[in-house]
């Protein structure tokens, strides 16, 4: 509890946590890239449809097949990039939501903390590192507090 109480004495703690949250909330660049890739994917889909229509009227199947394979490869690459970007956005949003919950939990705390609270532990702490003569408490906002054993 000592480490949590030391963390709570920091005057700008909640403001610092919310500033970190903002960094994860802003997905503007990634959202723009996602939109560009989605547009590119739609263009490729239309090109594939046109190619299929053209190939149905032609006897030169080999040349259409090569172009079709190239478009499918390009479509797959774009789709892979889209999935990766969407995962990145989802991860950032998840981190943002976790940090907001962390800030809300900090705001709700009565100071000082006198009894162990398992929910508080899981909400605030990321990990505890045991050293020879100290415990290093690493909180979810990155703050580290070292307590002598």
Fraction in helix: 55-70%
Distance between the termini: 13 Å
| Largest sheet data | 3 strands, antiparallel
Q: Whole-number radius of gyration?
A: 26 Å
Order of helices and strands: HHHHHEEE
Beta-strand proportion: 5-15%
Give your account of this protein's structure.
- By secondary structure, the protein is mostly helical.
- It has a domain at 12-115.
- It has helices at 2-8, 13-25, 28-55, 61-108, 118-124, and strands at 125-130, 134-139, 144-148.
- A 3-stranded antiparallel sheet has the order 1-2-3.
- The model has no long low-confidence stretch (mean pLDDT 86).
Summarize the structure.
This protein has 149 residues and is mainly alpha-helical. It has 5 helices and 3 strands; from the N terminus they run αααααβββ.
What is the topology?
Elements: H1 2-8, H2 13-25, H3 28-55, H4 61-108, H5 118-124, E1 125-130, E2 134-139, E3 144-148
Antiparallel strand pairs: 1-2, 2-3
Helix pairs in contact: 2-4, 3-4
Which features characterize this protein?
149 residues, mainly alpha, three-stranded antiparallel beta sheet, 69% helix, 11% strand
């Amino acid at each position: 509890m000592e480490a949590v109480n030391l963390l709570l004495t920091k005057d700008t703690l909640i403001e610092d946590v919310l500033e970190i949250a903002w960094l994860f909330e802003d997905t503007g660049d990634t959202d723009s890239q996602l939109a560009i890739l989605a547009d590119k994917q739609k263009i490729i889909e239309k090109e594939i449809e046109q190619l299929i229509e053209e190939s149905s009227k032609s006897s030169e199947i080999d040349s259409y097949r090569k172009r079709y394979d190239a478009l499918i490869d390009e479509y797959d690459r774009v789709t892979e990039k889209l999935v990766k970007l969407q995962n990145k956005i989802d991860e950032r949003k998840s981190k943002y939501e976790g940090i907001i919950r962390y800030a809300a939990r900090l705001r709700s705390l009565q100071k000082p903390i006198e009894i162990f609270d398992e929910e508080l532990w899981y909400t605030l702490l990321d990990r505890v590192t045991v050293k020879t003569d100290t415990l290093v408490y690493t909180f979810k906002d990155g703050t580290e507090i070292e307590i002598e054993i």
